[in-house]
Write a structure and sequence with these properties.
heterodimer; A: alpha+beta; 6-stranded mixed sheet; B: alpha/beta; 9-stranded mixed sheet; 4-stranded antiparallel sheet; 38 helices
Chain lengths: 180, 796
């Protein structure tokens, strides 16, 4: 486990800011103690200082996970957000998409959101803006990237994709092995 | 046009008939509530006479009294053996849980009855539930009535056979024409009216009318009854159950008894269950056995064993009955002999069958609300909207829900994936409730997979403090990671150590939960393979592992913690070897005491079991059984550590005094082996702990030694880290250390003894007269070992 290098921090924060914008600083400067990011097995974990101190007792090969896993660095040094980060993305998300109850299932199986399943969408969403996907009952289901701007969404035909799927909570079951 | 008319007429007719089918009489209020439908709805009958001519074709086919009787006979022939089966285990559960805890099959019915009218009713009112509960009661009542009816019918059966010829003719008549039938009913009705009182008396037999000849027979019977001392009813019943037995019996009893006594004696003996002879059991071995007869035999056998002095067969002793019972149980429920024997030791016989029966049905599916993300009420509402039929889980849990049935898979709803609940057995709530972690504490879950209890701990702590979730199996840890992230738990460190190494990795926990790996004898319903796969060696192996784990768990607890210092030990096994014995062992080895678990139900742990005697405080532990609590078999014990000192020398002494008789008592060969291994295992770490303490007392000089020691044990490759741990430890352990003199080995035993006597006087009883000598020997052994270790150090 080690702190992130500057490069890694930059890549990760760039990625995060696509979803939560300047709210990143709320993640770093928290009123309830210092929180930090650590790299372990190519994965980035977000934890409080207290837990970090305790986790140093555990040898590297025996440590499985600390705090919350945000995502991992690929072999090409890109950062990929995991669904486990949803707990921290959802409250701070700037752009949101709500899907209709019928489409929930489809999205949770890893499909893109079509116009026909789109319930609501935040105003002024840009194209390729990171969005968090909610059910109509305001339960966060995952996140993705807006394929169209809000304006375009109004006009397109029902079968066209409006949100590209990136991660959904169904992965807790589908990809349990690769979460860590 | 013509067609249309016909259609219209037909339609009218249908409409008319529709009305006729069951006409509502506004003056006569229909009863509501549970009960037989026909009892409530009387409107139709009163109206029926008006439409009788038209109604004939549509009304349900009425059978003549005889055909009804015949039908009854047919049903009876099929039913009688099953009847017993139906009666058996459907008892309520003993404690207050009985409201929600019903055997799975039954609860399904309850769910259906309640339907999904309004969810809120589930919460505020228990009325509905009560109603539902009434139903089975009524059913029971009806059953009784039916039984009575059947009995009286049984009597008639013999007489009926005489006029079979007549009936044959009637039979044909029945099939040809229904109208005739009705008239015939009327005929007999009028005839019966004439016969007056007797008919009224016979009404209990389903209100059926009797043939003259039957009535005559009845009269005869009544006469007999008044003459004879007891009725022959029992006789009839038993004849069916065990024919062959009866034959034997009669031979014997005829020989023994006087002529006059035979009637009465016979009846008495009918109740007595007889052991089958040797040749019969041989036959059974060859032929395919009938499970029904075996079940009946088990029941009879248990009955005899419960009232042994009155019901026993002369000349047979208890052992023979028990061997037969064991054999029958293992064939009927397909257990291996070892497990059956263990279970017979564990339960009173009356409970045993209930327990085995409960293992055949699944426990209800329960879920736990994740209070970090939602509230139980909201979750229940969301799930009800998805077509899940649920109810709150007992009074003792505020977060549990029972799922009766569901139209969607409960483990894959969006709510589940969003982490609003966790699928978790009711029994898994208990250890965490017993642990009652407080906010801001440092908690260790020693074997955490798949994370159900860990996440429950986290939600009780509201995501504050730190939880260390450990498991020895890396594969199973993946589910822990998944569940922790899904449920939004952020205060967890997940690691993959063997639990036995734990105090070396880190210590000073406020609370530790040890859900020890076990033989799984409490969850046979989940995994029926346990029935046949376990034997003595398996139990002993897991007991040994559990003893090691519980010691390392205790060593990880910080007794000086202002809020905690608690350890909860639990297993999903019901074996005494894996539960009370392990805790008793820990009580002897470490400075811990049992405290109440805080669970207000469950059965007390054993303080004595067969030849073993445990510490009396073990009754504070709790046992849970599938048949009495409708959750998996479970054991929970809560321990409080009152001193961080590991009683090394005294432990050596106690090992000698207390362990020795146990080894002698249990003559199993595998038993001695683990206990030996235990001893050697124990002495090494305890010594290590000892020297570490010394090192701390001596200051920097000793630190090198710690390093050396840790290297030698090669527990963890990082030496300096080890030292850091030791330093940390010292901070926490300073309190007791400061008071202690440096020459521990000489001073310790007496001090410890005093401590022991002060803390637990009852332990003193365990110390036998010869303990002085043994004590010295123990010390010698200890010194010898120490020398050896020092030599080893030099060589290294």
């Amino acid at each position: 486990m080690r702190p992130l290098t500057d490069e890694e921090t930059k890549t990760m924060f760039e990625k995060l800011s696509k979803y939560i914008g300047e709210n990143i600083k709320l993640l770093v400067d928290r009123p309830d103690g210092t929180y930090c990011f650590r790299l372990h097995n190519d994965r980035v974990y977000y934890m409080s200082e207290k837990i970090l101190k305790l986790a140093t007792n555990i040898s590297r090969d025996k440590l499985v996970s600390v705090g919350t896993c945000f995502g991992k660095f690929t072999k090409t040094n890109k950062f990929r957000l995991h669904i486990t980060a949803l707990d921290f993305l959802a409250p701070y998300a700037k752009f949101k998409v709500w899907v209709k109850p019928g489409t929930e299932q489809s999205f949770l199986y890893g499909n893109h959101v079509l116009k026909s399943g789109l319930g609501r969408i935040t105003e002024n969403t840009e194209q390729y803006q990171g969005v968090v996907v909610y059910s109509m009952a305001d339960v966060p289901l995952g996140f993705g990237v807006a394929a169209k701007t809000t304006q375009e969404c109004r006009r397109v035909d029902p079968m066209s994709i409006v949100v590209f799927h990136q991660a959904d909570v169904g992965e807790f079951i589908r990809n349990e092995d690769t979460l860590t | 046009m013509f067609h249309y008319n016909v259609l219209a007429v037909g339609y009218l007719c249908v409409a008319h008939l529709g009305v006729m089918g069951r006409k509502l009489d506004p003056t006569n209020k229909v009863k509501r509530g549970p009960g037989k439908k026909s009892k409530k709805q009387q409107g139709a009958e009163t109206e029926l006479s008006k439409f009788i001519s038209e109604a004939e074709e549509t009304g349900p086919k009425r059978l003549s009294s005889r055909s009804r009787k015949r039908a009854a006979k047919r049903v009876q022939n099929v039913k009688t053996p099953q009847n017993n089966a139906e009666k058996k285990p459907k008892k309520g559960f003993t404690d207050e849980n009985s409201k929600w805890l019903k055997p799975a099959k039954k609860s399904l019915k309850v769910g259906e009855a309640e339907s999904e009218d309004d969810s809120d009713e589930h919460w505020e009112e228990d009325d509905e539930e009560e109603d539902v509960e009434e139903q089975p009661k009524k059913k029971g009542g009806k059953d009784l009535e039916k039984k009575v009816a059947k009995k009286s019918e049984m009597k008639q059966v013999e007489e009926e056979e005489e006029d079979e010829d007549e009936e044959e003719e009637d039979d044909e008549g029945d099939e040809e024409d229904d109208d005739d039938d009705e008239e015939m009913v009327d005929d007999y009705g009028t005839l019966d009216d004439g016969s007056g009182e007797e008919a009224a008396e016979d009404e209990e037999s389903d209100g059926e009318e009797l043939l003259p000849i039957e009535r005559a027979a009845k009269k005869d019977k009544k006469l007999k009854k008044s003459m004879g001392l007891e009725s022959d009813d029992d006789d009839d019943d038993d004849e069916e159950d065990d024919d062959d037995d009866d034959d034997q019996e009669e031979e014997k009893s005829d020989g023994d008894m006087d002529e006059e006594d035979t009637v009465q004696a016979n009846i008495d003996e009918m109740d007595i269950f007889r052991l089958p002879g040797a040749e019969e059991s041989e036959k059974e071995g060859v032929l395919a056995v009938d499970l029904k007869t075996i079940y009946q035999r088990i029941k009879d056998n248990v009955d005899v064993l419960c009232n042994f002095s009155t019901k026993r067969e002369v000349g047979k002793d208890r052992k023979e009955y028990i061997t037969l019972l064991k054999k029958d149980l293992s064939t009927y429920y397909s257990y291996n002999n070892f497990l059956i024997e263990k279970l017979i030791d564990l339960f009173p016989l009356s409970e045993l069958v209930d327990f085995l029966e409960a293992n055949e049905i699944q426990r209800p599916v329960t879920i736990r609300t994740n209070t970090l993300k939602t509230r139980r009420r909201d979750l229940a509402q969301a799930l009800i909207n998805r077509g899940v039929n649920l109810d709150p889980l007992g009074k003792w849990s505020k977060v549990g829900l029972v799922i009766y049935d569901s139209s969607v898979p409960v483990g894959a709803t969006p709510e589940y994936l969003a982490g609003q609940y966790m699928l978790q057995g009711a029994s898994s709530f208990l250890p965490v409730m017993a642990l009652s972690p407080q906010e801001g504490e440092l908690v260790l879950d020693m074997s955490s997979a798949p994370g159900g209890k860990t996440t429950y701990i986290a939600q009780l702590m509201r995501n504050t403090g730190i939880i260390v979730a450990n498991d020895a199996n890396a594969e199973r840890l993946k589910s822990v990671v998944g569940n922790i992230h899904r449920l939004g738990v952020t205060n967890t460190v997940i690691c993959n150590y063997d639990g036995r190494q734990f105090p070396k990795v880190m210590g000073g926990f406020d609370r530790v939960l040890l859900d020890a790996p076990c033989s799984g004898t409490g969850v046979i319903a989940k995994d029926p393979a346990v029935k046949t796969s376990k034997d003595e060696a398996d139990i002993m192996r897991s007991a040994h592992l559990q003893k090691e784990l519980i010691l390392s768990a205790i060593d990880s607890v910080n007794a000086e913690s202002p809020t905690g210092g608690y350890l909860v030990y639990c297993t999903c096994s019901i074996m005494v070897e894996e539960n009370e014995w392990v805790v008793d062992y820990a009580l002897k080895k470490r400075n811990v005491k049992l405290v109440p678990t805080g669970l207000d139900f469950g059965k007390e742990g054993f303080t004595r079991f067969k030849e073993r005697r445990f510490h009396p405080s073990l009754r504070l532990s709790r046992r849970f059984y599938p048949h009495s609590h409708n959750m998996d078999g479970f054991f929970v014990a809560k321990l409080k550590k009152f001193s961080n000192v590991i009683p090394t020398a005294s432990s050596g002494k106690e090992e000698d005094t207390s362990e020795a008789p146990e080894v002698i008592a249990v003559t199993e060969p595998p038993q001695t082996k683990p206990s030996k291994g235990d001893k050697t295992n124990k002495t090494v770490p305890s010594q290590a702990g000892d020297s570490k303490e010394k090192a701390q007392a001596n200051g920097t000089a000793g630190k090198k030694k710690v390093n050396l020691e840790s290297k030698r044990k090669n527990a963890s490759p990082a030496g300096p880290k080890k030292a850091k741990v030791a330093k940390l430890d010292r901070d926490t352990m300073k309190g007791p250390e400061a008071k202690k003199p440096t020459e521990k080995t000489t001073d310790d035993p007496t001090a410890k003894k005093a401590n022991k006597q002060g803390g637990k006087k009852k332990q003193a009883i365990n110390v036998k007269p010869g303990s002085e000598k043994k004590n010295r020997m123990g010390k010698n052994k200890f010194k010898k070992l120490k020398k050896m270790l020092e030599k080893l150090d030099k060589t290294v």
